[in-house]
Design brief:
The chain is flat, with a radius of gyration of 24 Å. It is about 55% helix and about 15% strand. It is built from six helices and five strands. With about 190 residues, the protein is of the alpha/beta class. The protein folds into two domains: about 1-65; about 75-180, Glutaredoxin (3-Layer(aba) Sandwich). The protein starts with a helix and ends in a 7-residue tail after the last helix.
């Protein structure tokens, strides 16, 4: 009996909170609609111009990224190329892999998808057998490893699949979330 009363009370409190929140959101939306209704032609034109300028800027940024090799997942042949690629772009994900490692192929599938979706980040892969100095310098001991580089500095690593649920059948969204946690891509 007492448990039912407690549940009823909790439900009423929750319902009341939800109602108050809904009212606040509705009031905010109403005020925004009222602002838009009260705009004159000049204000609407300025708003339109601002939006158009923002779209142009975004398109220029996209073209710049594409010219720097963003939008594709590709292999780089050597350590020297790694340093050059990292200098060119603000955000880079580099997959340190070995051909004979099955899990590297799993990671490749996901990185191909993410490279096309997140143009703000450059996606690369480097064979560890061609990069012994770099692997030693970055202390890469487990394959696959993703080095997450921001502004030319290695920020974070995704080592193996431990951050991805410790399973071979993690989703692309799980990897996307993990990279977003390191702010190496814009995760929404």
């Amino acid at each position: 009996m007492e448990a039912n009363a407690s549940v009823d009370m909790f439900s009423k409190v929750l319902e009341n909170q939800l109602l108050q929140t809904t009212k606040l959101v509705e009031e905010h939306l109403d005020s925004e609609i009222q602002k838009l209704d009260q705009m004159d032609e000049d204000e609407l034109e300025r708003l339109k111009e601002k939006r158009l300028e923002a779209l142009k800027k975004a398109q220029q940024q996209k073209q710049e990224w594409l010219s720097k090799g963003h939008g594709e997942y590709r292999e780089i042949p050597s350590e020297r190329d790694f340093f050059q690629e990292v200098k060119e772009s603000k955000k880079v994900v580099c997959h340190f892999y070995r051909d004979s490692t099955f899990r590297c192929k799993i990671l490749d599938r996901h990185l191909v998808i993410l490279s096309k979706k997140h143009l703000e980040t450059k996606f690369l892969k480097l064979n560890v057998e061609k990069a012994p100095f770099l692997c030693e310098r970055l202390r890469i001991k487990v394959i696959p490893t993703l080095a997450l580089v921001k502004d030319g500095k290695t920020q974070d690593f995704v080592v193996g699949f431990s951050d991805l649920g410790n399973t071979d059948d993690f989703t692309t969204e799980t990897l996307e979330w993990r990279l977003g946690c390191s702010d190496i891509l814009n995760y929404r």
